[in-house]
Amino acid sequence: MATKNGDVQTAWKYHEGTKHSYWSVRSSSHFLDWANRPLPFKIYPTIETIALPRDVPQTGVAALAAISADVRAASGDSAPKLQDLARILFFSAGITKQRNYPGGEIYFRAAACTGALYEIELYVVTGELEGLNAGVYHFNPADMSLGLLRKGDFSGNLAQATALEPAVARAPATIVCTGTYWRNAWKYAARTYRHFGWDGGTLLANMLAVAAASGLPAEIVLGFVDAEVNRLLDLDTQREVALGLVPIGHASQGSLPAPREAPALGLETIPISKREMEFPAMLEMHDASSLASEEEAGEWRGKRPVFPPCVSPGEEVRLQPLSEGEQPGDTIEEVILRRGSTRTFDAAASITLAQLSTILDRATRGLPADFLEPGAQLNDVYLIVHAVQGLAPGAYLFRREGKVLELLRPGKFRAEAGRLGLEQQLPADACVDVFFLSDLKPILDGYGNRGYRAVQLEAGAMGGKMYLAAYAQHLGASGLTFFDDEVVQFFSPRAEGQSAIFLLAIGKALKRKAR
User: Fold this and answer.
1) Distance CA 277, CA 156 (A)
2) What Å distances lie between residue 191 and 381, 456, 482, CA to CA?
3) pLDDT tens track for 72-98
4) Given 275, 301, 327, which residue is the final one in a domain?
5) C-alpha neighbours within 13 Å on the C-beta side of residue 286
6) Structural domain harbouring 93
7) pTM for the full model?
8) DSSP string for residues in 151-175
9) Angstrom distance (rounded) from CA 251 to CA 172
10) Residue 16, domain member (yes or no)
């Protein structure tokens, strides 16, 4: 039976319709209405709240180890305590910095986000835990609290919605990530649906690393019935939608509770803006990529794309990662607290091949997700190298299976990188620019429209891991947007037929002189 998810013309239409080009950027009528800037928090003014502990002990686990750890469920039992949830939530979406400006205050979060608009919300569905009763909760980073939406154990509802996905069915707690359209679309219009993947993936890179450092298995689950999860969270799906689940912990024994009734709650929330604009292309894309039944969710999880074979490689440079003894020992918590999107790179600086190798090696060892076989990858990683000691400037393709960089074209391409990155100075001044490109045809053929969610999320998660690996080595990084087709043209003929998905610039931050 044909499904909406199987009609991939919707994904192609959205992708083509949200591409950036030299002329599309200049002809856009969209503008920033600062008086209508969205509130960066979802606030329920009338519900019961539970304060999360703020003095949670750090794990002491080195960031580079946490980033690359295998966090899929093992055979043993592990259940998060309240302090574990507090640690994971804070270092995924908590407020780590505050800046005062003439126009007000900006609260920066643990994970990078396009425009610092933080459209990703987190919810927790849990059974009885040490320090926390069973229920459905909303995480509010503004006051570091959990807001109680439903009392009781609704983990059976999530298990049903995922067609009894083992990681969810055996998880003592599951974190649900959602995306709020207008909070990001205020600045980025219909392209926001791509940002759901970028920003959600970057946040999940933090979440997986902190879960691993806490000794808790975790996995990304995209195979679920959208309407059932949205109903459980009582979401207004014209404004906010569930994007992914992350089961935390593992229980090898015990019966799964039966699904419970989840009637509409109608809870009051504070409006995030005086007025909101709707972008139909995003709503259409999300609806077309939604799964309608448990049967469809189970079948979707078993599908895999079939990629064409790679062409013969060119000149290769083998990665030279730092040895265990050479790697900095900064903990994952220290790195996340230090991290921030670099505003200006030092164009005169350089990084070493060992530093770049460590970033690539640690960030691409695989993503624990229900849509990927262990070690599989949807995105290819291309680079424009400007200033890496021991590596000639030029365009490269990273081939993970051999841990090598393949030289596509030698040359100095700072000006070209600046143009590709939407004519911004950051990618021109960086030491290296990392582009994620993917062959969308086999992905959409295999996964349907939902494959578009998966490929954007994977790029964001790998980019998020690179963020952390860069900051662990006291480097800087910043995610950027791009001229879609020009990126593909630059890396062609090797990238012919692919699509640009994400861009991350890496280098050394330019230290401002004190006044």
Assistant:
1) 36
2) 22, 12, 12
3) 756 678 999 999 999 999 999 999 998
4) 301
5) 27
6) 35-301
7) 0.96
8) ES--HHHHHHHTTS-HHHHT-SEEE
9) 7
10) no
